[in-house]
Amino acid sequence: PTKISKETLPMDSTELRQSILKHLEFSMGKDLVHASLYDMRMALTLAVRDRVIEPWFRATRATYAAQSKRVYYLSMEFLIGRLLEDAIMNVGLTEAAHEAVAGLGFDFETVLADEPDAALGNGGLGRLAACFLDSMSTLGCPAYGYGIRYEHGLFRQSFAQDGRQVETAEDWLRQAHGWEFERPEASFRIGFGGSVAENGRTAIWTPEDAVLAKAYDTPIVGWQGKWANTLRLWGAEALTAFDLAAFNKGDFTAAAAPEALARTISRVLYPDDTTEQGKELRLKQEFFFTAASIRDILRRFNAEHSDLSGLPSRVAIQMNDTHPAIAGPELVRALVDESGMEFDTAVETARACLGYTNHTLMPEALERWPEELMSRVLPRHMQIIERIDESHAKAHPKRNVSIVENGEVKMGELSFIMANKVNGVSALHTELVKDTVFAELNALHPGRIVNETNGVTPRRWIKGANPRLSSLITDTIGAGWEDRLERLVELEPAIADKGFRNQFAEIKARNKRDLADWIERDMGIAVNPAAMFDVQIKRFHEYKRQHLNILETIALWQEIRANPGAGWAPRVKIFGGKAAPGYVMAKEIIHLINNVARVINADTTTRDVLTVVYPPNYNVTMAERLIPASDLSEQISTAGKEASGTGNMKFSLNGALTIGTLDGANVEIRDLVGPENFFLFGMTASEVVECRKTPDHAARAIKASNRLGAAIEMIEAGAFSNGDTEMYHGLTQNLRGHDYFTVCADFDSYWDAQRRVDAAWGDQDNWTRMAAINTARTGWFSSDRTIQGYMADVWKITPMI
Ligand SMILES: CCc1ccc([C@H](C)CC(=O)N[C@@H]2O[C@H](CO)[C@@H](O)[C@H](O)[C@H]2O)cc1
């Protein structure tokens, strides 16, 4: 394909200021003297968006001209965060924007802070999708992201007086956000329910319900504005917006019902990130966006080609976990029922287009839809799933792998069988996928499973979030590392230089002072900016073991009180993260952490050595604030449970040291930075499996560890619940009993590792050396490298730039 390399033309601050002023007046209809913060943010957004249009059009034209294959990334979640600063950086306008906005009498940071996060995701899976969009645009990989335009993203988290999590609806669309283009011409009628009539080799499905899926396009510009792809999010609308008859009869709710009902489909993101709820609305959401996307893909293909057997050479569809798994049956339905393709040929053609990424081994996260529900909501698809199951069983008579089992439709098996490539998201995870959840299918389809270890975009997570470190990197190795992150290794020689280490340490110190100011301003808690910032930020889940962290914190507090003069490394323990609203145990852990913080922070004897901080409503923007100011990254999941982790990569790249288990991508981080620059603890995945064979493994561990026993007893005694001995009963009982995630069995190893951390902290210059080595040796964890892997191994596509 013709390589195109013309970068976006530079623009100086004067031109940009003119463009902002033009939009303020003509797009926002506001005179500068009356402009609000929102007006200024929107005017700046529109001025920057103008700069994105050109590479966007150029990319689309080049893709059509080259008849290039396209990637379609189907995901129920895109955890984008804020867009403005990222776009400004990608089109090279950061300095100009600072000056232009200041020249118009506004503070740039304040204008940026006015943008709400697009929180269209729960955690790792959603954020990975957002990083992938940035990398596909930066690499010039022709691609569409397809998802749902939720009116309400992930809930806002606040804490009640007693420290419990409170959820309130998130409302990012209460104001226009300026980045999306409504596309009424790209609308599709999506049916549900109804009946199926046989029609020879095919069938006719007559849905009983239907909604309109309307497209909203957001341009995603890559580094240096060379290319821009499209994120197409579907919004649900009623086919008939208003029931005038009901209105005339004065039944206003009935009149508005059609619209309200239809919009329910794209109203809100399900806040669960590990437990499938099996809710009908969730299934409808999954089908809604998947079917609209498949229709849009086929419309685009048919506009350029007449022979559908050529589809795989032009279309690569990636299913981000099982949530879009219905894509297989829907594509087969369209090819058979609407284009008359023979069934088995249709299955082959569909499979040749489809890839499936598995992000979790947690049994409760693997989607299984009741056959009854699937038959009722998607009767034709249920028929097709059964036929796919039959033909797979016929092709592999010996083995008993089925999609439909015990009245349930297993979406993992369906995705595997309908995909030509299945991938895990870290080396360890991919091996576990082969050996556990898909062992049978792996044996039947050797070579179908490949590994694509996750990555993160260096644009948002280094260049954007840590400008001070970015300047040091550029000063040291020159520019160009932003889309060639493997070049960070060139930093290594400089690490031997004390001057460089001092600069590195000073950058971390300044980032920490900024964070300390924010914590003081936002939470009224004064923290010691010279203390070690020990950070655990991620969704709350028992396998991520935030409760192991707080147990160690309690034991440490006790130890400091017992030996105040022992020269403890001063620490600020920072937690961040949300729990799914229905996840009781995770919410109990949040409740405990807030109350341990209350008690420890009130202890004047240990005040300067240990502080616990838990800012509410952790999100992408908060991660961008916390990670550059972190010294210690907590990646302490039960080995074998965290598929990869991506926060771990962001911390290492920003010069934090990891305390962690041999789980997910921690293994590959440790391999790259070197065991001497990583604080390892805990059982391996196979040792955990062994450990569980001893039913009372927790009781034994508690008996063997006084510190652990004492910490649990403190909780039970009501030390963190104003004497209420029942408050955390569920948690302590679970720890003494089942303790499935081996918190107790791993406690002493974790404690010892934390003491090694203390010792290392004592030599600040050596700590800085280890931190800088983490930055220098983790360039491999760029999502550009990950996407290059998908392009070569899965999508068989070559970049256009
Ligand atoms: C059906 C409810 C539901 C929703 C989301 C999910 C996701 C798969 C959970 C998730 O975000 N998994 C995380 O994906 C990251 C990106 O690959 C990994 O880095 C994390 O280890 C993994 O937990 C499971 C179940």
Automatic annotation (TrEMBL):
UniProt KW keywords: Allosteric enzyme, Carbohydrate metabolism, Glycosyltransferase, Pyridoxal phosphate, Transferase
InterPro entries noted in UniProt: Glycg_phsphrylas (IPR011833), Glyco_trans_35 (IPR000811), Pyridoxal_P_attach_site (IPR035090)
Reaction catalysed by this enzyme: [(1->4)-alpha-D-glucosyl](n) + phosphate = [(1->4)-alpha-D-glucosyl](n-1) + alpha-D-glucose 1-phosphate
Name used for this protein in its record: Alpha-1,4 glucan phosphorylase
PROSITE patterns per UniProt: PHOSPHORYLASE (PS00102)
UniProt keyword Glycosyltransferase, yes or no: yes
One Pfam family, short name: Phosphorylase
EC id: 2.4.1.1
NCBIfam families noted in UniProt: P_ylase
An example molecular function term from Gene Ontology annotations: glycogen phosphorylase activity
Task of the protein: Allosteric enzyme that catalyzes the rate-limiting step in glycogen catabolism, the phosphorolytic cleavage of glycogen to produce glucose-1-phosphate, and plays a central role in maintaining cellular and organismal glucose homeostasis. Phosphorylase is an important allosteric enzyme in carbohydrate metabolism. Enzymes from different sources differ in their regulatory mechanisms and in their natural substrates. However, all known phosphorylases share catalytic and structural properties.
Family: Belongs to the glycogen phosphorylase family.
Top enzyme category: transferase
One GO BP: glycogen catabolic process
Database matches in Gene3D superfamilies: Glycogen Phosphorylase B
GO cellular component: cytoplasm
Cofactor(s), names only, from the UniProt record: pyridoxal 5'-phosphate
N6-(pyridoxal phosphate)lysine modified-residue sites: 650
